Amino acid sequence: MNHRQIGIWLGAVLVISLISRWRVYQSRADRCNLDGNRIEPVRRVDLVRDGETVQSFCCIRCAGDWPDVPADAYWRVHDEITGEPLDASNACFVESRVVTVPSRRDRIHVFKNWADALGHCTQYEGHRIPNPFDPAAAQSNDPGSPK
Length: 147
Ligand SMILES: [Zn+2]
Description:
Layout lengths: L2 H26 L16 E5 L2 E6 L2 H6 L8 E5 L6 E3 L4 E4 L12 E4 L2 H11 L2 E3 L5 H4 L9
Antiparallel strand pairs: 1-2, 1-3, 3-4, 5-6, 5-7
């Protein structure tokens, strides 16, 4: 091989490796930051800081297990029916016998309004739970009772 062929060969290897890295980076956006599960859009939980998503998770349980949550960040969840993004502090959480992410055995469902949430509870033997991301609500004595 002469210098020109070696140059072309190295250039081709560089381009292929860059394309490969880019594809890995692209698919990472659809994976849970905690366990690497593929994220179903309607189950997606994002940790948002300064208007940007800093971490994404496949379910409420994974997000709850994430150790590094900045004080100025908030949790964005999605309405199970419409997929609409919601601030977790405005969402309705219920736990039922329907598993959302089998590998995590997560049974927490998110709704925008209580009519849909309680409809799910009636249909699937669920009950209302406090916001899992609110430390004050997590210490409540009776998390399962309706407010
Ligand atoms: Zn996960």
